[in-house]
Write a sequence for this structure.
């Protein structure tokens, strides 16, 4: 079985409008891939489709995770199978404490009838909170309620650490972060890099990639990957913008007579 | 029953756990329908004094003379056919003091509901009512020595008239409403409690009400008198099997908190969805006394209940904390009544309701502060959570404040669990029911913290089960 997150010829609509237009992408285990692209290229749509959001309709293509058909699974099944999405805009869950929320998510991964070891759970969570410089008093606070942008993003990373996914998609995790918070978040992600785990980092800015150094960089434009390169591609994009890549892609299409 | 099963039952009070019944075997049966004969039968069986029979007969007249309150309340009340109901069913008159003496089927019922287990664990006294009469009633010897009385209504009126007669029917007059009049005519069972001055009962006293028979009406009557500086916590739970036909539960509960006394009254109502639950609850609080109603309504077809506190003494305090969960086909019509009748009295009402599917929750609040008083305070918060787009909630607050030396505050909110919140929770691996359940528990979380631990665990379980069932 191939240990890879594989997206092939993916087409998806939102409200009848096609946003993803035959997207191909492979993220092997152990690698960090970045997706960059101008506004409206379909970056967040890709993240939502992978997670299974019901507003997005897949019209063609497929996604497999280590050989398993991701699209055949319910949203929660995808999560339990090892797919994690760090949200661009994490939701508030009033009255539900962080500890209870993460505990419920962990409990959902156990066999029916098995109980989570609460002492071990708290020990583990406190350790990870310390790494992310999240004050331990936060465990009692309601999920994302009254949190700053940076606190929300750090909580996303905490959840990712506690759920130990096989593949994690980070949807513009850098947006709204100051440089200190960005470093903390990046350190958290870097600590999780492992040969058994793949990352797809969606970002608008190269800045994040100074701290989470990707193995591969993809450019998404109008619902397709139009260029793939090494980490230096991110720097080039930062330097020169997207226009040259778009132009290059248009020239290719002309050349092959599309 | 093994220790293990009993322990499991102690934490496993859910609607399905209550959905069983035993074949009927009653020594006393008032038959079907309501007339003066029914009242005479009940009174005769109990061998009551004449004043009680007269009280009942007068109440029956008042009941018959009062129209249904359908000009403001649910039309569903019209579906109660008073002539199809059986008003008194009992196996015997004397509650046992030991579970060993309780008839087997009744004992098994309460064991399945985990009552004896809870009694051993954390209760100071228990009364377990099966249809019309208590099958079991016991209070810890130490409390008895301190003069605490915990008996059923029949025994209370017969053995301790000097204590109970004075207040019986005084907090809630017979004619308060049609259903309090009905209860006054046919009441049976319920708890009569007296706590002498200065006695602080550390562990809760518990009553458990069980309906076993079909087409039956349960009309318990409770009167709790807590003397000067004394304190008590009383808890009641209730279940019934899921019958096809409507069942009526109509209780009257009167509390009297003498100066500096404290009463906490906790209800976890989990009737099956065929039960009309029409209950009148009110307290009198004298100087510096405190009465707190904690009221959770999870079950029933229609509940109408507005616990009240009449603050008669200076600095008296009244509080209602209520949680209502209205699932498909259910209507929880609940609220609070706060009557300020002395200076510097304080009342607090916090109500949270959850409507699921076609469930409907209604909040009715009454706060009354007359002009001649000064320094009164009221705080009312009512929050509603709607789970589905066809769920419904209504709020009818009535706040009458006269004079300008008072502080009142009213806040209300309606919120909905959004699709995006559910998506977020599912992305973390929770299924639909778990996500709903977490949201609902989050919504009531700050109130549940006010409960004794054993009950907050039970309530959380009940909510989980309700959400599981509603998602299917």
């Amino acid at each position: 079985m191939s240990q890879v997150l594989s997206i092939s010829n993916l087409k998806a609509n939102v409200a009848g409008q096609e946003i993803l237009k035959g997207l191909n992408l492979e993220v092997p285990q152990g690698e960090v891939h970045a997706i960059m692209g101008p506004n409206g290229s379909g970056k967040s749509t890709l993240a939502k489709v992978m997670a299974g959001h019901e507003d997005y309709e897949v019209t063609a293509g497929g996604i497999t995770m280590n050989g398993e058909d991701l699209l055949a699974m319910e949203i929660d099944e995808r999560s339990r199978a090892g797919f994690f999405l760090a949200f661009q805009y994490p939701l508030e869950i009033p009255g539900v404490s962080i500890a209870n929320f993460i505990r419920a998510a962990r409990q959902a991964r156990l066999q029916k009838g098995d109980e989570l070891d609460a002492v071990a759970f708290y020990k583990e969570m406190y350790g990870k909170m310390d790494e992310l410089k999240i004050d331990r008093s936060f465990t009692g606070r309601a999920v994302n309620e009254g949190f700053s942008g940076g606190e929300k993003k750090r909580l996303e990373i905490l959840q990712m650490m506690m759920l130990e996914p096989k593949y994690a998609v980070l949807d513009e995790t850098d947006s709204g972060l100051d440089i200190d918070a960005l470093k903390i978040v990046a350190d958290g992600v870097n600590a999780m890099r492992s040969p058994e785990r793949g990352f797809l980092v969606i970002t608008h800015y190269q800045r994040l990639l100074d701290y989470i150094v990707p193995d591969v960089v993809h450019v998404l434009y109008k619902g397709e990957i139009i260029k793939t390169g090494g980490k230096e591609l991110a720097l080039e994009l930062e330097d020169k913008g997207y226009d040259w890549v778009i132009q290059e892609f248009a020239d290719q299409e002309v050349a092959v007579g599309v | 029953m093994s220790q293990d099963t009993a322990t499991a039952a102690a934490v496993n009070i859910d609607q399905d756990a209550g959905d069983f019944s035993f074949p009927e075997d009653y020594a006393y049966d008032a038959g079907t329908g309501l007339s003066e004969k029914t009242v005479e039968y009940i009174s005769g069986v109990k061998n009551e004094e004449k004043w009680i029979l007269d009280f009942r007969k007068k109440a029956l007249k008042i009941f018959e003379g009062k129209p249904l309150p359908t000009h403001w309340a649910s039309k569903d009340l019209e579906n109660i056919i008073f002539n199809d109901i059986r008003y008194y069913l009992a196996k015997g008159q004397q509650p046992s003091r030991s579970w060993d003496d309780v008839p087997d089927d009744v004992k098994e019922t309460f064991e399945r509901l985990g009552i004896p287990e809870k009694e051993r664990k954390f209760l100071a006294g228990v009364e377990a009512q099966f249809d019309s009469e208590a099958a079991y009633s016991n209070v810890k010897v130490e409390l008895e020595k301190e003069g605490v009385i915990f008996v059923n209504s029949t025994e209370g009126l017969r053995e301790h008239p000097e204590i109970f007669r004075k207040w019986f029917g005084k907090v809630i007059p017979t004619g308060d409403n049609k259903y309090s009049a009905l209860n006054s005519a046919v009441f049976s069972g319920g708890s009569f409690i007296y706590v002498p001055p200065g006695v602080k009962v550390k562990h809760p006293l518990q009553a458990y009400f069980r309906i076993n028979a079909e087409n039956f009406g349960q009309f318990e009557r409770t009167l709790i008198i807590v003397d000067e500086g004394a304190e008590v916590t009383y808890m009641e739970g209730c279940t019934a099997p899921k019958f096809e036909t409507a069942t009526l539960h109509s209780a009257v509960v009167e509390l009297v908190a003498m100066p500096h006394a404290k009463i906490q009254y906790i209800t976890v109502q989990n009737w099956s969805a065929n039960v009309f639950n029409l209950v009148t609850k009110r307290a009198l609080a004298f100087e510096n006394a405190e009465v707190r109603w904690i009221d959770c309504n999870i079950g029933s077809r229609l509940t109408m209940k507005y616990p009240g506190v009449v603050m008669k003494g200076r600095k008296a305090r009244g509080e209602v904390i209520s949680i209502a969960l209205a699932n498909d086909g259910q209507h929880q019509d609940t609220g609070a009544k706060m009557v300020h009748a002395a200076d510097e009295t304080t009342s607090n009402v916090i109500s949270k309701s959850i409507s699921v599917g076609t469930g409907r929750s209604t909040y009715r609040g009454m706060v009354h502060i007359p002009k001649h008083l000064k320094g009164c305070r009221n705080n009312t918060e009512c929050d509603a959570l709607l789970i589905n787009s066809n769920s419904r909630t209504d709020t009818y607050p009535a706040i009458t404040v006269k004079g300008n030396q008072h502080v009142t505050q009213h806040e209300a909110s309606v919120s909905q669990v959004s699709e995006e919140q559910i998506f977020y929770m599912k992305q973390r691996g929770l299924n639909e029911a778990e996500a709903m359940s977490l949201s609902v528990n989050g919504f009531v979380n700050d109130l549940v913290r006010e409960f004794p631990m054993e009950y907050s665990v039970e309530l959380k379980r009940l909510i989980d089960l309700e959400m599981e069932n509603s998602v299917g």
User: Anything to note?
Assistant: The mean pLDDT of chain A is 93. The radius of gyration of chain A is 19 Å. Residues 4-92+165-255 of chain A form a domain with the Rossmann fold fold (CATH 3.40.50.300). Chain A is about 35% helix and 30% strand.
